[in-house]
Each structure stands twice: as C-alpha cells, then as structure tokens.
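LOG
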Amino acid sequence: MGILLIITYTTLLLMLCFWINKKYVTVLPNYTLPLLFLVKIAYALFFLYVYTYHYGGGELTADAGVFFKESVTLHNVFYASPYDFFQFIFGLNDSPELINKYLESTMHWNGGERYLPNDSRHVIRINALLLFISQGEVVIHFMIFSFASFIGGFDLFQWLKKKSNIPPLVLLSMLTLAPSLAFWGSSIIKEPLMVLGLSLLIRGLFDEISITRKTWRILIGSALTIAFKPYVFICIVIALVYFFVFSKLFKKQWLALITYALFGITVLVGSGYADKAAYVIANQQEDFINLRDGGLYLHGDEEHYYYIYYANRSHFSIENGQATLLKPVGAYYLKKNENHERFPIQLKEVGTSYPVHLTLKESGSKVNVTLIKDDFWQMLKNIPEAIYNSFMQPIPNKKSSWLQYPAFLENLLYLFLGLLTFFIFPKTLPLKEKRLIITLALFASFIAMIVGWTTPVSGAIVRYIIPAHVAILVIFSLKLDYSKLKKKWFKA
C-alpha cells in the first residue's frame, strides 16, 4: 500500500509539473519541469539516505527525524480529541496544561520561551496535517516539501527570464537545482517552505506585474517567511529600507550605502537596541558553542551548573539521571543564564552524585568564532569573520566527513561565478536594477552576519545560509552577461 501511495503522489506531482510547463513555460519543451522535478526528488531521497543511514543507523535522525516524530505525536491528538488537535493546529491554546497533556514528550514543540516565535511548531503542524494523506509514508512528506521549494525557484524563473540573458534551461536549473539549495530545500524541515515564501516575496516586491499578482505574493511570501524563519523576514525588511529610502537619496550608491549604515548604527545605539541585539546574538552564539563542544552539564545549585568537557565524561558513571564521580576531574562552575561566565574548579569528592541536566556529544565540524559577550561593538568587529565563515565553510581538513567536500566545492563555484559576474562579464544595468542588486546583497550579508555570529558548526552554516543563496542566485541572474561569456568562451 505504501509503495502504491508513493507512486500515486509522484505521478500526480509530475503531471502537475507537466501542466505548469505547458501553460507557463512555452520557451521550453513540456517535459522540462517534470524532468527537473525528478532530479529534485533524487535530492530528497539523497537527504533521506544521509539522515537515515549515514547519520541515523537506519532511522531518520537529526531535526528531520525529530520533526517527523513530533508531527506523529501531534497527529495522534486528533484521534483522542479533534477539538484539542485543531486548537494546536491553529495556535488557539498554548497553555502548559494542554501541552503537558498531549505533547510533554516533544522537544521542538515544547521548547520553552524564545526571543522569536517558535517556527518549529509550524513544521510540525504541516507534517501532522500531511499525515492524513500520507498514511505515515515519510517519502511523501519529502516529495511535497521538495515540490514547495521547487515551485519557489520556478516563480523566480518566471520573473528573471524577462531580465536575464542566461538561456532559460540553464536559468531554471540554477534556480531550482543549485546543490545546497536543492538539498536542504528537499527536506521536511523549515527550509523548503521558507524558500517558497522568500521566492514569492522577492518576486512580489520587484517584478513588474499587476497589483493583484504582487499583493498575493507579498502576503503569502511574508506569511511563510515569518512562519518558518522569522529572522529572514526581519533581514529582508531591513534591506528594503535601503531600497525604498536610502538608495533614492543619492545617484552614487556608495554614498547611499554609507548613509544607510551610519543611520542604522546611530538608531540602534541611540535607542538602546544595540545592547539588546548584542545580548540576543551573544546568547544564541553561546548556546550554539555549548552544542558544538558537547559535554556534561550537572546541576550544582539553583543558579549554577557544573560543566565537564566531553572528553572527561568517563570520570563519571551515569545512570538514572545521576552522574556519580569516579575519579577527580576538572570542571567549570557557571551561571545557568550566562553560559560563558565560567570559573574553573576541581570536583574531588569521589562517590558524590549530581543530577544530570544535559549530555551533549561533541560536534565533528567545529568552527572557531570570536565571543561577542553582549558587546555591540565587538559584534561589529566580528562582521568580517562572520561573513567569511558563512560563505567559505566548510573548509575540509583531515577529520572532515565526505559530505563537507561538495559544500566546499559549491562555495568555490559561487566565488568563481561572482568573479565572472562582477569583474569579467558584468552586464550594464539601469539604476533601479543596481539598487535592487545592492538590496539583495545587503539581505544576503545580513543573513551571513547572523549565521556567522551565532553558528560555530560548519554543517549548520551550510543549512542556515540558504536564504542568502537565493538572493545570490538572483543577483547572478540579473548581473551576469551571458552573451559576452558565450561570445568569449563558446565561439565557434
């Protein structure tokens, strides 16, 4: 029955691609979109393989596995109480009592207070609803999410084919099958629906189409982007301030950029939000460093933990939530809410038991980052490091997994395309499109800053930088003069 369902949904999605191709892409054969989507399905199956067999030992693991399991837990609420199920689906009741009744075992749904809305819940909601038609076949979820991001790339193509002289097949393939974008956009986590939302939003903002077609794209794109990656929406709104205001103040855009930057820093410092922003970013950074380094967190008292390095966990016997000291070990005494206010101590009382707060494995793809420590000016100093890490990691080393090499080669490809686009075969653009490109470059830079500031793990950087990749591909599409390239490199 499961195989029949998978075949049925695959056929329906391919037929939909065929219909869209026939109706909206007359410049390409009718089989183009179906064939490209088959490649996208291959990405989805590869993602499923990597997180089931390479990392999971036969079971879907990491965020994809957790999201799917928690969606099953939420889905089962329907059979206990449809009323409570739809309260969860529509966010009508987030009381701790209701959550503890049905979803106490969850990690992403029951994740506690956050600075931004809990976007993980939306992924769980979508997967829980899809379970009504998938009957638990996770491959169907992968295909539907993959189709969402595929349509996002297609919608950008519908705009950019009017602006770019890159051949339509190359342009469409680039926007839908760029390696990291296609890989993470073929998962069952946040990225596919975020890519769809961001793509709709970008086209709605910048394409010269009717007000109706603009409006629904902006509304749906904004809703999806806020729902699945709120900080991405914040970054594009801040970049749009440049496009709609500062880029119009000066004909020379470098003057507009300087004015924009100085204005932004002045507003942040003058309003007091600079310190708040540094505090939020620093806390995210410190939390992720804890995940990167792994280790053992033991309850010390009401306000403090004992932290033991991952390599020293063997100094304890851990059983039933208690860690019993077997031999003396160096540790750190740290405040629960200030992860890097650490004081070195020695735990010497062999036989003493401590309640375990958290046990984390050490990450295999560490990236060194400079601590911000709630300092706004240090955060600004870290911008070059953050952007470098975001666009160059992972840099392979002797300990690197084979999965890091394709991502590294892709980064080199982007650098090469950037060289072609801006220095060898640039297209001369009108002022409005120059402003648009700078706006998208600002958006990509803001994403890179946030990712680089907060993410000390290269495997996570590759995933979180995806919104910037969408903007960069649009920039390449607009700025690269393919006719010059073809004349120079492909002449008969």
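LOG (cont.) second protein
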Amino acid sequence: MSSADPTERPGPARPTEPAVPAGLVDCARELAEGRTTSSRTVAAALARIEASGGTLNAFRHLRTEAALAEAAEADRRLDAGERLPLLGVPVAVKDDTDVAGMPTYFGCDGVLPPATADSEAVRRLRAAGAVVVGKTNSCELGQWAFTEGPAFGATRNPWSTAHTPGGSSGGSAAAVAAGLVPAALGSDGAGSIRIPAAWTHLVGIKPQRGRISVHPHSDAFQGLTVNGPLARTVADAALLLDAAAGPHPGDPHRPPAVDASAAARRDPGRLRIGLSLRPPLTLTRNAPHPEVVRAVTELAEALARLGHHVEEARPRYGLIGLSFVPRATAGIAELAALHPEPGLLDPRTRSALRTGTRLGGRVVRAARAREVRQHARIGAFFDTARGGPGYDVLLTPTTAAPPLRVGAFDHLSAWRTDLAMTSACPYAWPWNVLGWPGVNIPAGFTRDGLPLGAQLLGPSRSEALLVSLAAQLEADRRWYEHRPPELSTDGGR
C-alpha cells in the first residue's frame, strides 16, 4: 500500500459517533449473541483497511481470502453453539510476528520466504477464535520511534496524517486508532508499544517478560522485547492480552498466569504512586515538553482525586543505559545478519549491526548479568523491606515530546537518529531492561489536538495492579469517547 503526503493539521478530538466499529469486547459479544456475523465483521474491517491504504498505510500485507474463509468457518462454529473468547473477531499482528504462509519482513525490503508455522502468540490468538486479517507496518527491525522505510513508505497518524504514529508498532497503533481493527498485537523492546499508544490515544500494555511468548525466538533482542496489545480501552487490551498469553514449551521465561480481564473489573484499592517527570540519564538532557508536563501532572491530580497518595519521586536508575545499548544492538545484529540481501538494509541498521557485533559475546553477557543488581536497586522503589519508599506504582510521561512529523528522521546518520529518539522518547526503555510490565494510558491532547500519553509502571509481575488502576482512570476520564477526525478514502483529510 502506498503512502500519501497530506499536510493537514489535526482536528479536535470529538465524541464517539454511533456508527464507529465496536471495540474488541463489544465485537466478541455481538458475535456470540448473534447480532452480527464474522463474515460481515471481517469483510467490513478489510474494506476499511483498503480504503485507508493511501492515507494511513498501516498494513504491509493482508490475508483477504484466507481471513474471509476463516470468518465463514467461525460463523459455522458460532451457529453450532461454540463459544471462544475471540471467535470470529478480526485482529491484526505486527510485521515481526510469524503468520504461516506470510513472509516476516519486520520492516525490511527484499524477498523473504513465507513462515512455515504461526508464532506461539498467533497460535494462541487463533485458538481463542480470532481471525488475523493482516500484518501491520513496522520500521526496520523495530529500531526506531517512527514507522517509515523504503520497503513500504510512511505509516501516518490518524489524528494528523502529517505526523508519525510512532514506532516501532506504528502500523498496529494506526490501525486500531483509526478503527480499522478493534485491537492489534505489537511488540516492545524500548517502548515500541507504549510510544505509539501514547501518540495515537490508545491503551498499550508492555507485559512482564515471558507473559506472551516471542517464539520462534527464545529471548528476543537479548530479553528486551516482549509482545503486547494495543486497544482503545483497558478491557479490550486486557482481553487480547489474556488470549495471547502463555508460554511455548521452549520459552525460558514463564511467569505465573494472570487474568487481566478480571483485573480490569477490579478496584485497585488506595495506592502510593510516585510521579517522576525527570527522564532517566540520557545523552541529551532535554526536559520534557511543557504540554507533556501539563498532561501528566493533570493525570496525577486525577489519581489524587480518586483517593491515591501521589507525590514526586525519583527512581534510582543508575547507569542502566550501559546494559541497554549492548543488548539492543546485539539483538539488531542477530536479526540483520539473517537478512538474505544485507545491502538493502538501511545504513543505520548496518551501523547497528557493526556495533552489535563488537558488543556481542562477553559484553552482552556482562550487561545481562547486571540485571539482578538492577532489579534490586530499582525494585527498592517498590519495596520498604529493601529500604525503599514502598510505592505501588510509578507514573511517568511515556514520551518527552508530542508526535513528531513524518520525515523528521530522514537523512540523519545513525548517531543523530539515536540522539533525536533519545530526546523525544527517553522514558520507556529502562523497563525493557528490567523485563517488568508497564501500561501506556491516554493523557490528553496538545492544544493542536495531538495525543499525549503517560506510563503506569510497576515491579515484577504487576500487570493485574496496573490494569486495575488504568481501568479506574479510564472510568473517570473516559478517553475512549474521543476518536480521530474522520479520514477520507482518497488520500486526503
């Protein structure tokens, strides 16, 4: 699908219109109650995707014939009385996720063979009855906070097509925000779910490492990357998380099961919440944008009004970046080395490949060995037994800047791209080093109508608490009532 070059400014957020497609929970309920059919629902999703291709360019590949056949089979099963959590519901997955019969390009150019089997996450989604309609765009090997590349063009933000939806799960975020599908799977190795969720007004969950399998990888990007949901509501994100969660027999990380959907219906209780607006140590020392500070501060005030104890706090991040860089670049190098035509890779990818090769082996092992001490130091923030303040949740901005314009990173060197991304998105990546869960929640809009987000971060295996708190905030702030300005189907606004 081609990308257009519109330059319209975003319109104001406006209340939900009755004709908009149902969310994941409502879609599953409508199908189970016989108020619609999977064939009709999937066909409508495919039509929306095709109509938006010239404007948003959210999808790399569609499964049109296969998805319609699976929808027809889902209707037969529904008519026979079978019920599954997502039976007949259309969903999308990111271009780094294996779907049998489709190449896994992961944002790259070139010719790659089709995957011979589904990834474990896709297998579980299918087992829950979901119909995978296609694969969404990602930047090359998931490295950047934008979703653009020579292989597929630029994916654009439904709130303003002059701006990026973020990355690397930008295609999934754009697809859900625009109502093309009710929910989508993304992946997060340094904020790649949470950043696009923030910039498209979505709920994005980065689960505990191992919660959703990354098979056929055993430890993606040296343990940094996890799979997780993007959706418009907490309940929708929780349902997709529950459907996709669970280990492959060969997975090294196997946290105990969690019922996220039940957590979304539960009161979180009165919590101690630390608010931290100061980014972890970065190379840029840039302060967060004033509108980001305003939005996250207003969210903190809402939490206090709901009965929580909220105060400013400073986690002890230490030199956690020294662990992140070797692991991230080694992960890129491992995937880039498998590409059959390395000359087609972005020069910045080839630079990361060289760096990752140099930092592999002993340096990466040392970086991973530091994780135990990092858990202890940063974990003290949540644990009075370790001499810490004993907060339940950490609240931070998800990004330091509002959504950036499409093309903002064009023609930058690898070093300047990293500096620009670190400046705009310094908050998310430490939780990937730790492997702990975090949830992006919508935090409002800039005065120009661009979405902003905030992170709820917790200690190990705290998804249930974070989901409960996010659901409580959602009931108060009702962010799901606002959708992007309507997109035309001819490439304009």
